[in-house]
């Protein structure tokens, strides 16, 4: 897959240009599925925030509200009960998966349980656009600092990429660079701290930071 891993979405022209480069055509010609699943695992999320994502409300203008040709919903918790013969074609027909934030360990669990994680390697043209936990789920670990799901066995996630991500740099009082440095010291591997104006593009293992803001690399 082609990965666009963001903290806050497609927030500036540089990230938008990168997204369309990955898609190979304008956003307005692309069909997307949004994945709200991670929200259910986080105590700060719930029905209203999920509705906001799905309805492309103003808070999601940089994500589901980008002007997609069509926008559907892929709820991972439902997939095991309806059969792959139904949902796999939905995924294969999409140009992009818009995977929202919440708790990355919860999202990782349901990506495995649903079968989506197993399907991903067969989707070389799909663009995965992650926000926060939707980006972090692709990393090996997120650190205990970001685990909010009480049933999480540990902080491990899918490990599709070999680096970890500290999102929302300087967006919250507890997400300062000093906080990121303490977090990175416990990760034990390469990592990036990224703000809302930064994305990480990964294609065929090549990593590129796209930013009009601030970011820091750890353990390189």
TrEMBL record:
Pfam families in the record: Peptidase_S51 (PF03575)
Ligase as UniProt keyword: no
Metal-binding as UniProt keyword: no
Transmembrane segments: none
Keywords: Hydrolase, Protease, Serine protease
Assigned protein family: Belongs to the peptidase S51 family.
Protein name per Swiss-Prot or TrEMBL: Type 1 glutamine amidotransferase-like domain-containing protein
